[in-house]
Design a protein that fits this description.
The protein is an all-alpha fold. 78% of the residues lie in helices and 0% in strands. Helix 4 runs antiparallel to helix 9, helix 8 packs antiparallel against helix 9 and helix 14 packs antiparallel against helix 18. The longest helix has 30 residues.
């Protein structure tokens, strides 16, 4: 009985992998140049990473409306809206650079957040038509599409960053093109629209009731911490690399290595979850994130940037995919729109806070890039303790209380 379902799921996974690969390339592009462009436009260097923070804020604000739209009209419409937001964000960002206006540039970043929010639902869409057995693999494969985006994005930055007199203007034109071309992929999705609920259909748990469910609460906390800490460190990385005497191309290469490390493990993360259990994989991710911070604190040679950011990517992969899998199996189909929107609202709320903190820690914590980089990585510790403690609490609870 599962074969037809999984044949449809595999088709949808293929489409979503392609979307993650092509459309997803805009995220490493913008994350590579956002802080550097912001530094050139901002009236105060403490606001250099504000453009990246605005992307994440836009994603947080768009999470609930985009999820509601998908629940009403289907995944395809929501993903199309995402590409529209990405193209508009690229156009407004390019104009902001053209007129050297920091506020306009920030507006473009906020609009880009609509795309980032929609991209966050690719992983849930992969699970929609999958059997229980195929679900963790489907999520993992879609995340693996980011492997190609990790190569395409930074290389496009190298080709376009200095293509015009205005630095990074060409990069934003490339972002527009990526969204226009990539939007056509969603015409091939085959995910049924959610049925209109009848009057006597189950309403599902409220948002508060969902968050009071232990498994859901821990999944949200682990997803939030994994994503927020990855963003905290990655946002400051180009500033730290360039500030420590290396080039913009070195910064792009470090980001490439990081994003590759985020997505290469996705080829086997689903299998590891199926074999060892989701809790062990999430725990491994948190330990690896701690290792990334330890390496970053050990020095600021180029090799240490590479190793730290590679570990950061692997830790994010295990922590975030594991938490997503935990969440996907902890709510009913009729609760999907409510829970997934709430999850991404909370996750990207945490990421917004991390991104806003990143610029202040990096540029306003000691006066040197080295001191700022140290502050960024030390800030990881309390949040890793929070997520690790929550996971241990969940594992130690009696099995019959995993409701």
């Amino acid at each position: 009985m599962t074969q037809p379902t999984d044949s449809i799921a595999r088709r949808n996974v293929a489409v979503l992998v392609a979307a993650q690969a092509l459309l997803g390339a805009q995220m490493p592009m913008i994350f590579t140049i956002g802080g550097l462009a912001g530094q050139s436009l901002a009236p105060n260097p403490c606001f250099a990473t504000l453009p990246i923070s605005l992307i994440v804020l836009g994603s947080m604000l768009a999470a609930t409306p985009v999820s509601h739209l998908m629940q009403k009209l289907g995944r395809q419409q929501g993903f199309m809206l995402g590409t529209l937001g990405g193209a508009l964000g690229g156009a407004v960002g390019a104009y902001g650079l053209y007129v050297a206006s920091f506020p306009i540039y920030l507006l473009g970043s906020l609009l880009t957040g609509i795309y980032m929010s929609a991209q966050g639902f690719y992983r849930f869409a992969a699970a929609d038509t999958a059997s229980d057995e195929f679900r963790p693999k489907a999520i993992s494969y879609v995340m693996a599409g980011g492997l190609v985006s990790a190569i395409i994005g930074p290389q496009l930055v190298k080709l376009t960053a200095d293509a015009y007199v205005i630095p990074f203007f060409g990069t934003y034109l490339a972002v527009i093109a990526v969204n226009v071309i990539g939007s056509g992929l969603f015409l091939f999705l085959r995910i049924p629209k959610p049925p209109v609920p009848s009057e006597d259909a189950p309403k599902g748990r409220s948002r508060i009731e969902l968050l009071k469910t232990p498994r859901i609460a821990v999944a949200v906390i682990c997803a939030m911490v994994s994503y927020a800490l990855m963003n905290l460190v990655m946002t400051s990385t180009p500033l730290a690399v360039v500030g420590c005497g290396f080039t913009k191309n070195n910064a792009a290469d470090v980001v490439t290595a990081h994003v590759l490390a985020m997505y290469i493990p996705s080829f086997f993360t689903g299998h590891l979850i199926a074999r060892f259990g989701v809790e062990k994989i999430v725990a491994s991710g948190l330990v690896i994130l701690a290792g990334a911070g330890a390496v970053a604190l050990s020095g600021v040679e180029l090799e240490q940037f590479f190793v730290a950011l590679i570990l950061l990517g692997v830790g994010w992969n295990f922590g975030f995919i594991g938490a997503t899998t935990m969440l996907a199996g902890a709510h009913e189909p009729h609760e999907r729109g409510r829970m997934q929107g709430l999850n991404d609202l909370l996750v990207f709320g945490g990421v917004t806070f991390a991104s806003l903190s990143s610029g202040g820690l990096m540029n306003c914590s000691g006066g040197t890039p080295q001191a700022g980089w140290t502050a960024v990585n030390l800030a990881m510790a309390p949040f890793l303790v929070l997520a690790g403690g929550a996971l241990i609490w969940l594992v130690l609870r009696p099995k019959d209380e995993f409701a």
